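SAMPLE LOG
Freezer: B-3
Tube label: C17
Construct: single chain, 416 aa
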Amino acid sequence: MFAGLKQIFTSKNRDLLRRILFTLAALFVFKIGTSIIVPGVNVSTSGMSFLEVINAMSGGAFTRASIFALGVTPYITAQIVIQLLCADIVPYLADLSKQGGVGRRKLNQITRVVGIVLAFLQGYMYSFAYIGSGSPMDYMLYSLILTAGTALLMWIADEITLKGIGNGMSLIIMAGIISVLPGMFKDLWVELIAKEFLGIMIFVAFILIFVAIIVGVIYVETAERRIPIQYANKSTSMLGKQNYIPFKLNSAGVMPVIFASALLSIPQILSSVLKKEGFTLFVQKYLSYTNGTGLILYVILIFVFAYFYTFMQLKPKEMSDNLNKNGGYIPGIRPGNETVEYVKTVLKRITIVGATFLTALAILPIVFDKFSNLTTSISISGTGLLIVVGVALDTYKQLESQLVSRSYTKGRRGRK
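STRUCTURE (predicted):
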């Protein structure tokens, strides 16, 4: 790893170094934007802790009522909606998904438009919680500012993808989460230093828990269930290696937590808008994370979305058809329906493990806040670490592949 990083700073990889510096500069602009507060907004957002995931992804911009308060969440939601509609629900979108590069570009444009619309709708709903009592023009102005902030972030993410290194959307989310960690550790140290030796021991234990979570996330993110495959008229010895289909243990990533949080946030937002005492008490009693029913519902939603998103991403029927077209098969399993059922069974089993791990990460900050006497700014966000580790691993793999590709190209030129 360190050898690869050292190779970046050699004179032969100046273009790659420029890409990295451009990425860092773009992320710095994002960080500055998270500190710019929308004028005339009440920054007190107590009672909005049900959106911890969105706040973490925006680098704390949500609780600060920043121009980047929504982050890139509306675009991510739009992507999921378009993916669902492409599954033969809307024939036009389904046809575009099968048209290769041209179709993907059109789908990307449609996704952006849907993302902007969702940003405006979300901004309008959140404006009631931020502004409180205001005129319709106040709500409209705040919604437009948040929409413009999301549109700017989408453009910055595109520039990172084109001119930088890694996926722009993912890096912005990762940067937002990382940016709040130093402040959290600082607050923890200030709060515990008064307890002298005991406080220092608690601080060390907190750090060790963080490290243990990171190690666990790395293990799960890199864990795979490999299904061996063979091709007609080709033996393993002829190919030189065993072919297989890799399935990640947590194929859904952090999306189920985002979906579950967003769904449970709807009643909270409605209670802020309607201001009906009976409805507000019902939401706080039965739909809040701090209560048993709300927590159980949260866990159920995570499991449901984990299965849903996994099977939406990894389609057993398409896998079976692609294997048949290429003359491939799973040893001991007949092609066709048996292959489809076998893949479904494997996905169901590994999704149980992945969803359980994801649920543990999601409820970890809730349990921590319940039993600790620390301030609300200090928490152990397992889902945040899951995002950071996942994006970091993907970005490093992309960086490593570019270094290998450049070395291979230069080696061929040298031989010529």
